[in-house]
Amino acid sequence: MVDKLIGKTYKSLRLLKKIEAKAVASEQLSYSQLLKFEQGKTSLTIEKLMYALTQIGSTLGDFEYLYYEQADYLPLQIGGAIFRTYWERNSSKLQKLVNELKDDLAKYPDDPRYFIYLVQAESFLAQVDKDFKISDAGILKIYDYLMGVSQWWMLECEILMNCASIFSDHQLRELVHKMINPGVQYRNPDALQSHINAALLSSIRVLIANKHFEPLREIFDYLDAHILPDYNMYERAMFAYFKVLYRFRKNPSKESLLAVESCIEAFKLLECFGLANLATEELERYKKESHI
């Protein structure tokens, strides 16, 4: 029996890359074979599937990610639910999501999405509940995955954005450097830029919290060049906030404190109340540490 979703998934990837089917066809894979495969009428050998993926600049990881995302049993809403629950600062609900994802992972151990969602949920839970700890094995698995990626896409950016706080200073520094290293290949870089920026902004928060300031100059220089003025006001506001927060964290003073508080007030004016609350929480912690 042919799994029609396999061909549908490949076609979705091809269209995402804006590549015509005729451009994929060759002696190894005829045009008619490709069309029948995409229509779910026939299957391809693993060798031909790998060839077809190479022709559109995709990997088997990309394919598996999208395949499971489209599968009926995958809870498509789970990513949004995790994120919303984090912003609610609801540790009980996050713990419930973690438990559900562990059960789902046990049912579908070959589905990489469940592990990825689980680690992200655990990362958020660890930020809300300081008594919750993520296993070293889980952290290392995610770190190794990101370090092994040759082409970054939204999935990798999402993982780094949501899981930055679980990595050691050394691991986070290496991941950030890899992300903004010109040698890294991005698929559809224009569409990806906002996701890269979001991951870096999340990493800045962690580096500032840990007083690991050395990598920040590289990140600041990158974001100065890639966050366009008046294009994404949220990114620009966050970046401005982290710059003044960095100055306060490095050299606490009444002047730098006032600058941070002004940014928080700006968040409120923009009706980013969840962000304002989060910024207020971290500022209060830093004020206590600095005895201000």
From TrEMBL:
Pfam families: Rgg_C (PF21259). It comes from the Bacteria. InterPro entries: HTH-type_regulator_Rgg (IPR053163), Lambda_DNA-bd_dom_sf (IPR010982), Transcription_activator_Rgg_C (IPR010057). Residues 101-278 form the HTH-type transcriptional regulator Rgg C-terminal domain. Coiled coil: none annotated. Transmembrane segments: none annotated. GO terms for molecular function: DNA binding. NCBIfam families: RGG_Cterm. This is HTH-type transcriptional regulator Rgg C-terminal domain-containing protein. It comes from Lactococcus protaetiae.
